[in-house]
Amino acid sequence: REEAAPPTDPAPAGAKKEEVTIITALPNDVLGTIISALPIDEGARTHAISKGWKHLWRDYTPLNLDDRDLHKMAWTGDNLVDLISDILEAPREVRARRVSISTLCRHSGDRDRYPIFDRWFRSKVLDRLEDFHFSYQRVNNTEPLQAGETMPPLPPSALSFSSLRVASFGCCHFPENILASGGITFPHLVELTLSRITNSENTLHAMIAASPILVNLYLHRNYHFRRVHISSQTIVRFRMFVDPDGDVMEELLIVNTPSLEEVMLWDQGYCGPRIIRVLVAPKLHILGCLHSDMMSTVQHGKTILQVYMYLG
After folding, report:
1. Would you list the DSSP string of 4-72?
2. What is the mean pLDDT of residues 283-298?
3. DSSP conformational letter for 2
4. DSSP state for residue 290 in the 8-state scheme
5. What is the rounded CA–CA span in Å between residue 193 and residue 296?
6. What does DSSP say about strands 131-135 and 96-101: parallel, antiparallel, or unpaired?
7. How far are the Cα atoms of 158, 252, 264, 305 from residue 293, in angstroms, in the given order?
8. Per the database record, which ranges form the F-box/LRR-repeat protein 15/At3g58940/PEG3-like LRR domain (predicted)?
9. What DSSP assignment string belongs to 116-168?
10. Torsion angle of C-alpha atoms 33, 35, 37, 42, degrees rounded to 10
């Protein structure tokens, strides 16, 4: 007959303690990296786990600041501004890794927040910033711009982070003089998004020229891009949505892009581009969503397609 299995030893009394010890035995910089993946309000509360964790938030955790995570801690936009100022001005041993500001208007009553934003972006905490997202919140976000209206100005300090790897800018107007001077460089930038900016395409061209290893370029509803020229040795993916309320895009020229694999255009309708030319893109295998009602010519290499609008 089968023998009864020996009784199972009870779990050691110190098993739970051992599990905690394994976690706390990780190097402090590893623990700090784990904490930085949490929303900022939750990351700041990790000091309550144990006495040994109290110093991790300040001394070993790269700052991951997203204003959307802070609204539960601030009753008004002005409270939120003050809270972010306190965070960026507090002494920290570890610099910020990621900052995202997207829920604040430029003005609050008579208070102009532009100088505050500019001061934020000059903070030493952001010296080695890798991931940056900035967009003004519009009061009437769904309303089209009036003739001649521009988005609020982007503080020049927002373009000073040479350590960036990912960046997006939205609902703003870039400082023309700084870009024209050629003094802006992003030697590590691999992904750039421009959304609803009111500059001309010259701003886009300057940003591409300042980003020598750019891989992903995303353009979303920018108002005055009329003749867009994409020339880059490193861009692999290019995606664009032309704004239906902006100027008609006359031409999209993609030239000298040996790494380009994907071009996607969305929902152009009657806003263009009228002409698309893709020259010297040997790796291109996706050229998608070409359904503009104003498009007349699509050229890929030596192949030229005439596009006719069906009026049936």
Report:
1. PPPPPPPPPTTHHHHHHHHHHTS-HHHHHHHHHTS-HHHHHGGGGS-GGGTTHHHHT--EEEEGGGSGG
2. 70
3. P
4. -
5. 27
6. parallel
7. 37, 15, 16, 15
8. 118-307
9. HHHHHHT-GGGTT--EEEEEPPPTTTTSPPPTT--PPBPPGGGG--TT-SEEE
10. -160
77-119: pLDDT as tens digits: 899 999 999 989 988 777 889 999 999 999 998 899 999 999 9
pLDDT digits (tens, 9 = 90+) for 11-29: 555 544 444 556 666 666 6
Q: How far apart are CA 260 and CA 216, in angstroms?
A: 10
| Joined tokens for residue 69 | 């995570």
| 249 neighbors 292 (Cβ within 8 angstroms) | no
Q: What is the DSSP letter of 235?
A: -
Spatial distance between the Cα atoms of 250 and 294, rounded to a whole number of angstroms: 9
Read off the pTM: 0.81
CA atoms within 13 A on the CB side of 227: 0
Q: How many angstroms separate the CA atoms of 219 and 238, rounded?
A: 8
Angle between helices 114-121 and 77-89 (to 10 degrees): 20
